[in-house]
């Protein structure tokens, strides 16, 4: 398998939205806030795993690590939904990320 890309995430999230159309809230700017709040909730679950178990356990316990990675995937899924809600393209994200990276490299 090639590297997992932002384009892959966006496409997979679009396919999920198509499959569950009518069952899930639609993708669009009006629901972007809700998707962002769901993502923050998933980030809380990730933080809770670290808080309860510590970083060493995540690196050493295969079962815990699998749970941690699964929760990280949930965060990424909602991230993709937020991007789709606001029609952010991979190219837009790359340009913004690259510029932010450049500025950070020039600090201090």
Descriptive notes:
- This protein has 108 residues and is mainly alpha-helical.
- It is 80% helix and 0% strand.
- The chain is built from four helices and no strands.
- The protein has helices spanning 6-19, 29-60, 62-85, 90-105.
- α2 (29-60) runs antiparallel to α3.
The percent range for helix content is over 70%
Instruction: Spell out the helices and strands N to C.
Output: HHHH
pLDDT averaged residue by residue: 96
**Amino-to-carboxy terminus distance:** 38 Å
**β-strand amount:** under 5%
Determine Rg (CA atoms, Å). Answer: 16 Å
Derived structural class: mainly alpha
Spans with pLDDT under 50 lasting ≥5 residues? none
> What is the helix tally?
4
Tell how many strands the DSSP assignment holds. Answer: 0
What overall form do the CA principal axes indicate? globular
**What multimeric state do the chains show?**
single chain
Offer a concise description of the structure:
The chain has about 110 residues and is an all-alpha fold. It is built from four helices and no strands. The longest helix has about 30 residues, at about 30-60.
Topology:
Elements: H1 6-19, H2 29-60, H3 62-85, H4 90-105
Output the keywords:
mainly alpha, 4 helices, 108 residues
